[in-house]
Design a protein that fits this description.
By secondary structure, this protein is mainly α. The protein has twelve helices and no strands. Helix 3 packs antiparallel against helix 6, helix 3 runs parallel beside helix 7 and helix 6 packs antiparallel against helix 12. The radius of gyration is 20 Å and the shape is globular.
Length: 255
């Protein structure tokens, strides 16, 4: 466990040194500011606009950061040949992979939490109150980031940075429309197509489970059962993807 924690801490520090993290924070501050500037156009619903626009932007930026940084997760280690020095020590490959996953998840989660704090501070400053119900949405979004990070780790364990980013983005987009894919298959007469779409539906991550921003916008707290289901589903899904990633990484030959 200490070896995994050490690699995770190193990954967080490495992410903090990347300029993209600074750019993401600055862009996030501009995004929150823009949401307030646009709020007068919402006909008295400025608070809802700031909340929805700000939280959605925070989630999107954190996801982009996780994909961008994670796509270079192993390629940099290979280019610098530091991975040989790390793996020559008494550390297993799956521990190295879990450490990278944890570090990337923590880094992107901290960015998401910081962005959410910006949104809440803006609401307090200009609307005189903090919607603490946003914390439930934040918790679900952090779990969703864990799923994003697990896919980044999986694809980076055997693919190039460009393909890793492409594959991860494709899975995330498909995961947002998993219900539509199942509905499409159920409307077709061909049993084979229906069976295929059902399999795809169950394999894809159901990311709509983690989107509670609509509730927060209307001041409704996320139900505890939804939080529990989101945590359980997200952690189990991450565990399954990381198990596959570790299996692939164990069999990879470095040159």
């Amino acid at each position: 466990m200490r070896r995994i924690a050490a690699i995770a801490l190193h990954t967080v520090r490495e992410a903090a040194r990347e300029r993209i993290a600074l750019v993401a924070v600055l862009f996030g501050a501009g995004l929150v500011s823009a949401s307030y500037v646009l709020s007068p156009l919402a006909l008295g619903e400025g608070r809802k606009v700031v909340t929805d626009f700000g939280l959605a932007g925070a989630s999107l930026l954190a996801t982009i950061l996780a994909i961008t940084l994670g796509s270079n997760l192993l390629s940099k280690e290979l280019d610098r040949r530091t991975i040989y020095a790390v793996l020559s020590k008494p550390i297993r490959r799956f521990e190295f992979l879990l450490g990278k996953f944890a570090g990337l998840w923590i880094a992107s989660g901290l960015l998401l939490a910081g962005m959410t704090a910006m949104v809440l501070a803006l609401l307090l400053a200009f609307y005189g109150g903090i919607p603490w119900v946003a914390l439930g949405s934040l918790a679900l979004s952090i779990v969703e980031l864990g799923i994003v990070t697990s896919f980044v780790v999986l694809f980076s364990s055997f693919s190039t940075p460009g393909l890793t980013a492409l594959f991860t983005a494709a899975v995330l987009v498909a995961g947002q429309f998993s219900e539509d894919i199942l509905y499409f298959g159920s409307q077709r007469a061909a049993p084979a197509l229906s069976a295929v779409t059902s399999v795809v539906y169950w394999l894809l991550p159901h990311l709509t489970v983690f989107n509670a921003r609509g509730l927060v916008t209307h001041g409704i707290a996320v139900p505890p059962e939804r939080l529990l289901y989101g945590f359980a589903y997200g952690l189990l899904y991450c565990g399954a993807i990381l198990t596959i990633a570790a299996t692939v990484f164990e069999r990879r030959e470095f040159r």
